[in-house]
Amino acid sequence: MDIQTHLSIAKELCGEVIALSAKESRVRLTMIQTMAADEAGLVHGGFVFGMADYAAMLAVNHPNVVLGAAQTSFTKPVRVGETLEAHAVVQEESGRKRRVEVTVYRGEGVVFTGVFQCYVLDKYVLAMQLAAPPR
Predict the structure, then answer these.
(1) Which residues pair with 65 in a beta bridge?
(2) What is the pLDDT of residues 37-71, one digit of tens each?
(3) How far apart are CA 63 and CA 109, in angstroms?
(4) Dist. CA 46–CA 50, nearest whole Å
(5) CA quadruple 64, 69, 71, 77: dihedral, nearest 10
(6) Contact between 110 and 93 (Cβ < 8 Å)
(7) How many other β-carbons are positioned within 10 Å of the β-carbon of residue 64?
(8) Tell me, what's the pLDDT at 129?
(9) Cα–Cα distance between 34 and 57 in angstroms, integer?
(10) Per the domain annotation, does 26 fall within a domain?
(11) Do strands 16-21 and 83-94 pair parallel, antiparallel, or not at all (unpaired)?
């Protein structure tokens, strides 16, 4: 299956697609030093969230998908050098809305869970701003 969304994403920050099928994705990411929040190598949660968000977008896999809301839990800390894998599955579709569940693993252990409310728009989210004349 071809990737239809987030084509310019920074793989070193959001992950590499390792599996993609209808309504499901898997993304792998190794935590790097620039993600560290302190001298002990604790990774800032925003990087784990970004990986999970990317996996959710891929599970929907539409060029105009956007995130509307998310309910998340960080269950264990993550350190520089660790490799994580995010698994995202579209659980529900209703009109434009997609409910995607994402679990992020370190080995067999869970470090993050989330439910992402995604929306498939008729047009690219920035279409109106790109068409507007400069101010």
Answers:
(1) 120
(2) 999 999 999 999 999 999 999 999 999 999 999 99
(3) 32
(4) 6
(5) 70
(6) no
(7) 16
(8) 74
(9) 24
(10) yes
(11) unpaired
Q: Indicate which CATH number applies to the domain containing 123.
A: 3.10.129.10
Q: What is the structure's pLDDT at 132? A: 67
Say whether pLDDT at 8 is over 70.
Answer: yes
Question: What total of structural domains would you count in the chain?
Answer: 1
**What is the distance, to the nearest Å, from the Cα of residue 24 to the centroid of all Cα atoms in its chain?**
12
In a domain, 27, yes or no: yes
Q: What values do phi and psi take at 38, rounded to 5?
A: -155, 180
Q: What is the pLDDT of residues 115-134, one digit of tens each?
A: 999 999 999 999 877 766 66
If phi > 0 it is left, if psi is from -120 to 50 it is alpha, else beta; for residue 109 that is: beta
- 4 found inside a domain: no
